[in-house]
Every structure is written in structure tokens, then in C-alpha cells.
Amino acid sequence: MLWYAPESFILLSNTQATTLKSDARIHMFTNDELKKYAQTLWWGLSTARTKPYAPGDTILLRFDADALPLAEIVFDMLMEKGLNPVARQNMTTAMDLSFYGKGSEAQLTAVPAGDKELMGSLNGLISLIAPASLTHLQGVDPKRIGQAAVARKFMRDIMEKREQTGDFGWTLCIYPTPALAESAGLSMDEFKAQVVRA
To answer: In 1-133, where do the E strands start and end?
Structure first.
């Protein structure tokens, strides 16, 4: 089967094409809708901090892979405002399973060099939540997930202290995915409509 992608023509098997069609459903917002969504996030971020944002402030943009279309629009908006966006994609479901399922204690509790310094200099956080699965970790021992979370708690503490002084603000949003729609008992179009209304 021949499937068209903007960059090129790709020859795919029927299974691959079905997967690609499924992935394409995720990108269901128009460019104008994504820009409006980004502006709403900016409003949320701006009102979450007592001090106004200024050019040069650092904003962490965390996003799930399925929210990439919105992440790109938000990143561009932050650049236009003179801010310094730091884009970080969350782990995919396969990465989550590998990390929590196979990671040693040292791996589960390791904190990358520079993360503490980054948290201490952040002025804002925008989180785009778009899970590809809500059940992929159900077979993983919750203690392992908790162990990793405890090792990183100090970073949350840093952000909370900065929030109390007015130096940090945050906002988040849901980006429609088939997993979220299925969990809500809705079609993708119905779930998208709920997100737009919210």
C-alpha cells in the first residue's frame, strides 16, 4: 500500500498503514485551533505566577509524543515572546515499560546531571498530557514506580519553593488521544469537542 506523508511517498504494509492511519487521528486539530490552545496555555501560565514573565525567562515544555503538534506551536509562541523554551518529551509507553520493568535500583533512582540546576532556574512549566496508554504499567510493581518518584521529589520541592516566591508558575492540559477517549467512553471527535469546550 502506498501512503502519502508530507515529506515523501512511503511504501508500507497493510498493518503499518493501519497504524499510521491510527496515528494520524491524533493530529485532529487545525493550525488555528492549536494556536488558540497555545494562547489558552499562555494565559494559564501567566496567571499562575505573581510576577509577569519577561524576555529571557526559562520555560520547561514537557509533552507526550502524541501532543507533538501542540508542543511545536507552543514552542514557537514562547520563542516569539522572547522566552527560552526547554523542550522535553516524556518517555513513550515502550520506554516506560523498559525503565520501570528492567531498570536496576541505580537506574530507577539516577538523576541526570544538570536537572537540579535546571529546576532551580526555571520560571515556568507547561505540561502537555497525551498518554498513548493508561494501562501499560499495570503489570509493574508500584514500589518500583514509587522508588523512581521519591528519587526525583527534590526537583518538585525546588519548583514549589520558587512558586511560593512568585518566580515560577505552571499550567497543564490534556491533548486528545485514543486511550483517553476510550477511557471516557467517547469517540475521538466527541472527546476533542469536550477538550475544546473546556
So the answer is: 2-5, 8-11, 58-63, 84-89, 124-129
Q: Tens digit of pLDDT for each residue in 87-111?
A: 999 999 999 999 999 999 999 999 9
What is the rounded distance in angstroms from the CA atom of residue 21 to the CA atom of residue 66? Answer: 14
For the chain, the straight-line distance linking the first and the last C-alpha, in angstroms and rounded, comes to 39
C-alpha cell, 186: 467517547
3-state secondary structure of 124: strand
Residues contacting residue 188 through CB under 8 Å, at least 6 positions apart: 25, 28, 176, 178, 181
CATH of the domain at 66: 3.40.1830.10
CB 1 within 8 A of CB 17: yes
Q: Does residue 7 have a pLDDT over 50?
A: no
Grid cell 508558575 in the structure block, residue: 169
Task: Read off the pTM.
Answer: 0.84
**Residue 58 included in any domain:** yes
Domain span holding position 34: 29-175
**Contact assessment for residue 136 and residue 97, using Cβ atoms and an 8 Å cutoff:** yes
- State the Cα–Cα distance between residues 53 and 167, nearest whole angstrom: 9
In a domain? residue 190: no
